[in-house]
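Summary for the funding panel

The consortium committed to producing paired sequence-structure records for every protein in the target list. Below we show the first two records in order, beginning with the earlier of the two.
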Amino acid sequence: MWEGGAVKNIESTDSALEITKSGKPSVIAVYAPWCQFCQKMEDEFAKFAEGSDIDVYKFRGDEEREFVSANLNTESFPTVNVVKADGSVVKYESEDRSVDAIKKFVSDTLA
């Protein structure tokens, strides 16, 4: 999912932790490639990433369930999180995964 384009891939749990501790705000989508809801949001999330002024990442969570549960607020897929500069991870709770809805959540969370 999200091959090429503005959504950057997180390759490992260590890399995911580095991003949360970087001091830079970012957005991380935790996904499973077989998940129909992840597939449905793919285009909108890619459009969001293309227009975003912060880093936007994807992390395949179905192979690291304990890690994503403990570190990325993830119990189901997809989960979109905003990582604040202080390293806290805030989960997007809405099922509205449109570009405008995600932008508003990110803006409100980082305000």
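The next record, for a separate protein in the list, is shown here:
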Amino acid sequence: MTFFLRHVRQEFPNDFILMVYDGAPCHSPGALDVPDHMMLLTLPPYSPELNPSENIWDDLREKFFGNTVFDSMDAVTDRLCIAMNHYVDHPEIVRSITAFPWICSFNEC
């Protein structure tokens, strides 16, 4: 997560960023190096309607990782790359999973 925050800082050096994140302990501000122009806001617990990325993870686990035993971490990584490329190639699937009404009201879906 710290790596991601550094990347965002580099991409948007002149903007103030309010980043919303889940409450995972490894994502807590005390565990992260948060840039000065960024503020972190924790989602409330048990609020999947506010975190559409959770639905992507559920779909990914079901379609690409269900009932599978991998021989190595490289095999897991390979399968994850296949899954991510699938979503890149099919944005309509991502839209159908994540386009909650409150998101679409701010942006055309």
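Regarding this second record: The two ends are 28 Å apart (CA to CA). The mean pLDDT is 85.
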